[in-house]
Amino acid sequence: MPCLNISTNVSLEGVDTSSILSEATSIVANIVGKPESYVMIVLKGSVPMSFGGTEQPAAYGELVSIGGLNPDVNKKLSAAIATILESKLKVPKSRYFLKFYDTKGSNFGWNGSTF
Predict the structure, then answer these.
(1) What percent of the chain is predicted at pLDDT more than 90?
(2) Running DSSP on this structure, what letter comes out for residue 13?
(3) Confidence (pLDDT) at 80
(4) Sheet (strand 3-8) strand order
(5) Smallest Cα–Cα separation from 12: which of 55, 43, 35?
(6) 8 Å CB contact between 114 and 108
(7) Cα–Cα dist 107/100, whole Å
(8) Residue-level pLDDT at 33
(9) Most CB atoms within 10 A, among 73, 85, 86, 92?
(10) What pLDDT is stored for residue 6 in this prediction?
(11) Active site annotation includes 48
């Protein structure tokens, strides 16, 4: 049920996206406390993006979850995802925003129904 959607202006050509997806899945599951089998990661590259008036490497992410989010969890997620973006895509931690949404199960569709 947690879904992390990340967009970046960095090209993903030649990048091992599988390792990013795998690492992000594990981190989100462990920090939020949900099974990996319910975690979805969406990674979009080469997205036109400006941060602070420049087009240097940057990223924007949104994480939606049914429960499991709170200020402490959000800080841990922000730090962990920023580390992945910096190490794998060279996006500095200072050029990345992550927005958190804690939603109700009735607002999250899955398997032809809702949670």
Answers:
(1) 91
(2) T
(3) 98
(4) 40-44, 3-8, 59-65, 96-102
(5) 43
(6) yes
(7) 15
(8) 96
(9) 85
(10) 98
(11) no
DSSP letters, 70-104, are -HHHHHHHHHHHHHHHHHHH---GGGEEEEEEE--
CA distance 68 to 51: 29
The per-residue pLDDT for 110 is 85
65, 32 in Cβ contact below 8 A? yes
Q: Residue 78 and residue 70: Cα distance in Å, rounded?
A: 12
First CA to last CA across the chain, in angstroms? 8
Phi-psi region at 62: left, alpha or beta (left = phi > 0; alpha = psi -120 to 50): beta
- Give the separation between CA 30 and CA 13, rounded to whole angstroms: 29
Residue ranges in the chain modelled with pLDDT below 50: none
52 vs 95: CA distance, rounded Å: 8
- Max alpha carbon distance in the chain (Å)? 42
Q: What is the DSSP pairing of strand 3-8 with strand 96-102?
A: unpaired
Q: Which of 2, 35, 48, 57 is catalytic?
A: 2
Q: What is the pLDDT of residue 86?
A: 97
